[in-house]
Automatic annotation (TrEMBL), chain A:
<dbReference type="InterPro" id="IPR000515">
    <property type="entry name" value="MetI-like"/>
</dbReference>
<keyword id="KW-1003">Cell membrane</keyword>
<protein>
    <submittedName>
        <fullName>ABC transporter permease subunit</fullName>
    </submittedName>
</protein>
<feature type="transmembrane region" description="Helical">
    <location>
        <begin position="108"/>
        <end position="129"/>
    </location>
</feature>
<feature type="transmembrane region" description="Helical">
    <location>
        <begin position="178"/>
        <end position="197"/>
    </location>
</feature>
<dbReference type="InterPro" id="IPR050809">
    <property type="entry name" value="UgpAE/MalFG_permease"/>
</dbReference>
<feature type="transmembrane region" description="Helical">
    <location>
        <begin position="67"/>
        <end position="96"/>
    </location>
</feature>
<keyword id="KW-0472">Membrane</keyword>
<feature type="transmembrane region" description="Helical">
    <location>
        <begin position="15"/>
        <end position="36"/>
    </location>
</feature>
Automatic annotation (TrEMBL), chain B:
<protein>
    <submittedName>
        <fullName>Carbohydrate ABC transporter permease</fullName>
    </submittedName>
</protein>
<feature type="transmembrane region" description="Helical">
    <location>
        <begin position="141"/>
        <end position="159"/>
    </location>
</feature>
<keyword id="KW-0813">Transport</keyword>
<feature type="transmembrane region" description="Helical">
    <location>
        <begin position="110"/>
        <end position="129"/>
    </location>
</feature>
<comment type="similarity">
    <text>Belongs to the binding-protein-dependent transport system permease family.</text>
</comment>
<keyword id="KW-1133">Transmembrane helix</keyword>
<dbReference type="Pfam" id="PF00528">
    <property type="entry name" value="BPD_transp_1"/>
</dbReference>
<feature type="domain" description="ABC transmembrane type-1">
    <location>
        <begin position="73"/>
        <end position="277"/>
    </location>
</feature>
<keyword id="KW-1003">Cell membrane</keyword>
Length: 300, 293
């Protein structure tokens, strides 16, 4: 009886299901199909005939390959650096911008600082190569003016990760500050006035009034960023890498691409990719529920 | 508002903000200046200058008359326009259906969330494109990541706000789902459509990694892939053309960095045109800065 009424409801909404059909077809072809295809990690790839099941062979191989352990380390280090170093920058930026409540200056800063977010990493790399150029770049002009020898930060193993951090911060600081700025703008002026009348210093106002208002977006964003630590920035690395520094910034994504699509070791690359995807799912799910518990706001 | 007097800390904050902003403004303006400079004077242009030395469109002429660049530009435009239209349309349709009270909504949503967080492998994505015979077809990039589940959820949140009474009234007037969708939902969802469409467009326009994998032939390359060749791999022969390089004629003597700059400027012009709309719609609340009372 109950099943019957369900069927009747489905039949009544047949147009809706029909509308959803192309969308579902898309998801199945472009997402489900490749995800199922990842079972290749447990098989030997054969051009002719069926693939042969080999169990965990490729995962064992993966974890005894020093290069994979290196790229796993690089991924985690670069992500952690981005997570901890870049995280406070948009907050500070919003706090500073909040000091200029009205006027052209704030608007000009906003218009310009949101822009890099929309540039592709190819374009950003082009800009940064000029910026860091040992012969004509602004940074090196400054270093030379101070009496030090010019540095090529892009081919130096010690500095390349910092170039990634700096360029990511440069790209995201403005855009990522929007959410904090909105929270600051939402604070009622009467709160400030009350604090001012009570003789509160600016420091007092920032720590006692502004920061508590930023707590929820801060916690949410930090936790959600933890969910993405397996993604250290494929597009960025591909554009900033070169032979002299690749061992320092080679990440799982670039490794999978190289081993899988360039060298054609499909099963091995898929094992690395599956490892990354599964850890990613676990991280995103756990951080989502954690954020939801702490702030009642999750990833979706 | 409170405390209008200029304090030392405010001056310092203003200085820091200005320095940060200039680090973004100057390099971008410098590229534009370099591309527009007179070829005879461009070597005088310093990295911190934002005004062209002399004026000439020769760099743009050379770059755009390069058949590789013009083809890549058209390909990028096609992928972005077709891709964004399809993305917006199907995202909104899916959001509309999923905000109705249909049987099986919960399993569908769980399915979509799994889709959102489980990233398919790049090897498998490549194989799917290959099996669909879409390798080296612009359609691979039009269809790739057509529906972003995250945007779909944002769209659903918005459609949930549309008063049920409006939809009920249309139903009583005998409107079918398609009419309702086109006549009521689409116009009401104008603003989120614009916002989401803009994100889709930026992602399509900027995608270079998947484009470089799926589109292998030179005829089907896109601007970002070509740009990478000029900017990151510093391949001047592709930009100027081997024939001109060998002849060492006027074109070969043009400054390579100016030609590069011109190509980058071409790649960011569509964004610069959209930027005011982005600011107006997406960030309007933050931009106006008015305090909500």
């Amino acid at each position: 009886m109950k099943a019957d009424s369900k069927l009747r409801r489905i039949w009544a909404d047949k147009v809706l299901y029909l509308l959803l059909l192309p969308c579902m077809a898309y998801f199945i072809i472009f997402h489900v199909w490749p995800i199922i295809g990842m079972k290749l990690a447990f098989y030997d790839f054969r051009i002719i005939g069926d693939n042969v099941f080999v169990g965990l062979k490729y995962f064992r191989e993966l974890f005894s390959t020093p290069i994979f352990l290196n790229v796993l380390g690089n991924t985690l280090i670069i992500s952690a650096m981005k997570l901890f170093i870049i995280f406070p920058i948009p907050i500070l930026f919003a706090l500073m911008l909040g000091e200029f409540r009205n006027g052209r200056f704030r608007k000009a800063v906003q218009v310009v600082s949101y822009m890099p977010h929309f540039l592709s990493w190819v374009v950003i790399a082009g800009i940064w190569f000029e910026f860091l150029s040992p012969s004509t770049g602004a940074i090196n002009e400054l270093i030379k003016a101070l009496g030090f020898p010019a540095q090529d930060f892009l081919t130096n193993k010690e500095s390349i990760r910092w170039v990634l951090i700096a360029s990511e911060a440069w790209r995201s600081v403005g855009w990522d500050s929007i959410i904090y700025l909105a929270a600051i703008m939402g604070i009622s002026p009467s709160l400030y006035e009350a604090a001012y009348v009570d003789g509160g210093s600016r420091w007092h106002i920032v720590t006692r009034i502004v920061l508590p208002h930023l707590f929820i977006p801060m916690v949410t964003i930090f936790i959600l960023n933890v969910g993405f630590i397996m993604n250290a920035g494929l597009d960025q690395v591909l554009n900033f890498t070169n032979d002299s520094v690749n061992s320092k910034i080679d990440i799982i994504d670039t490794y999978v691409y190289r081993v899988g699509l360039v060298n054609g070791q499909y099963s091995f690359a898929t094992a690395a990719n599956l490892f990354k995807s599964v850890i990613g799912v676990i991280l995103v799910l756990s951080t989502h529920f954690m954020a939801k518990k702490l702030t009642s706001k999750g990833a979706w | 508002m409170f405390r209008r007097k200029v304090t030392l800390s405010k001056v310092m904050i203003g200085f820091i903000l200005s320095a940060l902003t200039l680090s973004m403004f100057v390099p971008i303006m410098n590229l534009i200046a370099r591309a527009l400079s007179n070829p005879d004077k461009v070597h005088l242009l310093h990295g911190y200058e934002i005004w062209p030395r002399g004026f000439s469109l020769i760099h743009f002429q050379v770059v755009l008359s390069n058949s590789l660049v013009s083809k890549a530009l058209l390909n990028s435009l096609f992928i972005t326009v077709a891709g964004t239209c399809l993305s917006i349309f199907f995202t909104t349709i899916a959001a509309y259906v999923l905000t109705r009270k249909i049987v099986g909504k919960t399993p569908l949503m769980i399915f979509l969330i799994i889709i959102m967080i489980f990233e398919p492998g790049i090897v498998q994505e490549y194989m799917v494109i290959k099996d669909l015979h879409l390798l080296d077809s612009l359609w691979s990039m039009v269809l790739y990541r057509m529906i972003n589940v995250y945007y779909l959820i944002i769209m659903m949140r918005f459609l949930e706000e549309i008063p049920v009474s409006l939809i009920e009234a249309a139903k009583i007037d005998g409107a079918g789902h398609m009419t309702m969708f086109m006549k009521i939902v689409m116009p009401l969802a104008r603003i989120p459509l614009l916002t989401i469409g803009m994100f889709y467009a930026v992602a399509k326009w900027n995608e270079f990694f998947k484009s470089s994998i799926f589109l292998s032939s030179r005829d089907n390359t896109v601007l970002q892939v070509l740009l990478r060749q000029f900017v990151v791999e510093r391949d001047s022969s592709a930009l100027i053309g081997t024939a001109d390089l060998l002849k060492n004629n006027n074109i070969a003597q043009l400054d390579f960095s100016s030609l590069k700059a011109a190509t980058i400027v071409i790649a960011i012009i569509p964004f610069l045109m959209l930027y005011p709309i982005i600011l107006k719609h997406y960030t309007s609340g933050v931009m106006e800065g008015g305090v909500k009372e």
